[in-house]
Amino acid sequence: MNLEDFEASIQRLTNNVESLTLLEKSLRIRALYFIFNYVELISSMNKNNNLMKKKIQNLLRKVLLQDAKMEYALFEYELKEHINYWYKGLKTDRDEYVFIVTENSGHVAMVLITKEKIIYVNEDAREKLAQLWQDSYKKNIERLLPMMADNLANNIISVNGVKTSSGTQKPFFLEQKLLR
Length: 180
Description:
2 domains; five-stranded antiparallel beta sheet; alpha+beta
């Protein structure tokens, strides 16, 4: 709804009710303007969030599929302190491994934790994940990119637990967990 349509709606609402005092009409108009501005703000935020998602998705694509550099300092700042927590979750969920991705100000960091508690950071994590997924790596990452970008655009670290069928090391179940 544009502003002109909104103002026409206000006119209809206030003119059709003859019993309203001038003060009541004024309050009703103010409330309706507040609602209109709120809806416009939410709409604007959604557009900005969609732009942010696309930006993050492109950044993740560069890092995870085109071997762009990751930031170790970001790993230390956002991921390192949670490793034991994610390892406990891996054990509880009986995952084979879990990989975590974060983004901050155009920088990306990643950690992969195995059930043996071997920890791979950034490029080593990407390389290990590609090794574990073999021919499925690109397809799996492409499938996960939108969800990871959505999480990161909403300030949620992307945590992905992976189960494999015994002996094949091919992922048959991929579960995305959320950490705020």
